[in-house]
């Protein structure tokens, strides 16, 4: 069972919260932002694990198999890795290096200690290769980049009076 996705019902507020958040906030008595960071790290590790093979082997063809339930715009496959890495870094922000480190430790993990010790140098190299790809693509602080135009400007261009799904869709396309 994947425990990081368990959701429990908070009896006081009658809403469902991820179990990680509940433990960090109520049992460990830490801040809500710490719980959110841990949840973001978990999600980012999974996403990094799905991207690592594509960064290492530079196979653009198979990257179309990745589906994070995000509507990635229809672009050439060579750009999809950049878009997915950029979206991931915007989501995880300055915790991307710890998330990448955890991912490289879990990547192709054979749980025996001897194998892990032998492969530690290989894992360090995997970390460096993915980190260098992110740096080469200029994505290391992508979450700080402001969108080219905001929702109000989109509404003016589209000549509509109210925001809504159309504006959100265009904001998402601009972000990518």
Total count of domains: 3
Q: How would you write the strand order of the largest sheet? A: 1-2
3D shape: globular
Q: In percent terms, what proportion of residues is strand?
A: under 5%
Looking at this protein, list some descriptive labels.
176 residues, mainly alpha, 7 helices, 5% strand
How would you portray this structure in words?
By secondary structure, this protein is mostly helical. The protein folds into 3 domains: 30 residues, no CATH class; 103 residues, no CATH class; 30 residues, no CATH class. It is built from 7 helices and 2 strands. Strands 1-2 form a two-stranded antiparallel ribbon.
Describe the secondary structure blueprint for this structure.
Layout: E1 7-10, E2 15-18, H1 19-27, H2 32-57, H3 77-92, H4 96-106, H5 113-136, H6 151-158, H7 165-175
Antiparallel strand pairs: 1-2
How would you briefly describe this protein structure?
The protein is mainly α. It is built from seven helices and two strands. Helix 2 runs antiparallel to helix 3 and helix 4 packs antiparallel against helix 5.
